[in-house]
Amino acid sequence: MIRKTAAQMADALAKGETTSVELTQAHLDRITAVDGQVKAFLHVDAEGALAQAKSVDTRRKSGEKLSPLAGIPLALKDVLAQKGVPTTAGSKILEGWCPPYDSTVVSKLKDAGVVIMGKTNMDEFAMGSSTENSGYGPTFNPWDLTRTPGGSSGGSAAAVSSFEAPLAIGSDTGGSIRQPAALTGIVGVRPTYGAVSRFGLIAYSSSLDQAGPFGRTVLDTALLHEVMAGHDPKDATSINAPVPAVVAAAKSGDVKGMKIGVIKQLQGEGYQKGVQARFDESLKELASLGAEIVEVDCPSFEYALAAYYLIAPSECSSNLARFDAMRYGLRTGDVNGASAEAVMSATRDAGFGREVKRRIILGTYALSSGYYDAYYGSAQKIRTLIIQDYAKAFTKADVLVSPTAPTTAYKIGEKVDDPMAMYLGDVATIPVNLAGICGMSLPAGLAEEDNLPVGFQIMAPAMQDHRLYQAGAALEAALLSKWGAPILDKAPALGGSK
Length: 498
Hints:
Layout: H1 6-14, H2 20-38, E1 41-44, H3 46-61, E2 73-77, H4 104-111, E3 115-120, H5 154-161, E4 167-171, H6 178-184, E5 187-190, E6 211-215, H7 218-228, H8 246-252, E7 259-263, H9 273-288, E8 292-296, H10 304-319, H11 340-351, H12 354-367, H13 373-393, E9 399-403, H14 419-423, H15 430-435, E10 438-446, E11 453-460, H16 465-483
Parallel strand pairs: 2-3, 2-4, 7-8, 7-9
Antiparallel strand pairs: 1-3, 4-6, 5-6, 5-10, 9-11, 10-11
Helix pairs in contact: 2-3, 7-8, 8-16, 10-12, 10-13
């Protein structure tokens, strides 16, 4: 049962072929069996999950009309507040903290009867691309346990890829859903900025952060997207508009007549040979389905990486100032006669990891007197140019595409001492966040060099998220027919059946 899709599990629940308690217990058993190697979870709430599952079963037995995902287990990134459950954002500075409230996303999941099994590992405060920056140790890629699953939502992606959960939620600031989805062979979506509430999402960079779904298929991801999206008056950046019909789009999967734009700047030089080969093959599949392939030019994308690594650290410098040892979280250095400044300094030094400190320092510098216009102000101008480039490109194409990441999963420790090499892994995903539009990564096959998954990225205009699912479902069906089996069935023992 744990190898079925979430949609298939939901169908089995509706037909009475299994119960949510049985389904949840099966996944908890899987976590017990393999998570000692994968280390996807920071906290497993077995008692709470089984109680949620039992409640759904009781409601279903009474004849209550339930949501499509009622009773389906889910893994939650440890950046979303869940009442009474440890929520650390992967940081020692929040070790043991249990929020007194639920984030809006968690409230929506509970209302839909989705069973939250526990909190997944992540790069500390979502700062990283490999989950090696967690204060609690790295997560490992189920395809090859010597490699990273990507980040910062690596724990959530690894949980889905290793069959520990059929669905998961991550957050995406510069590609932190799409990049780990690509590296672990699953589907991940960053919805339009403001389409999913950020209330209760521990902030890294407020103008870029966005929670989104992981699944093993495009349809599974669409089902979760519809549950978690929607307007929230508690979030000032929330969009007051209907949720796009992403499930209907995922079920249609028709790209005949659709114009698909290939971004000139996001392919070719610097991309692994196998990544480029799978991308080119996917384009041919879409063309064979009746899509029109066109090339689009987005010259400002050349500066997206530099702009992002000024804007995001600047916002993180401001957001993380709240962790001051005065209100909640870690407190150290509190000896007789110690000043508030001394306690704050000692606590932040002990509680924050190396990457978080690096970004706080960079952001504080960029915002400092005399440098604001030269750095932060200039980066915001680049952001405007990127938005304009997307607007022009979408006059020529319905969706835009690129490889999700320039390489497949790299070895644990390979780039941890070279921040620039790590940052370059986000080159194809960052423009989406800067523009506030939506993006999806889905599996495009395996690279011949290392037999590891390659991701195919689809981008669509703001609040046109359904276009991602329409194009993604079409490509997924074509590739599935070509492969003869889901890509996860081609993974080693931890990932799949072969």
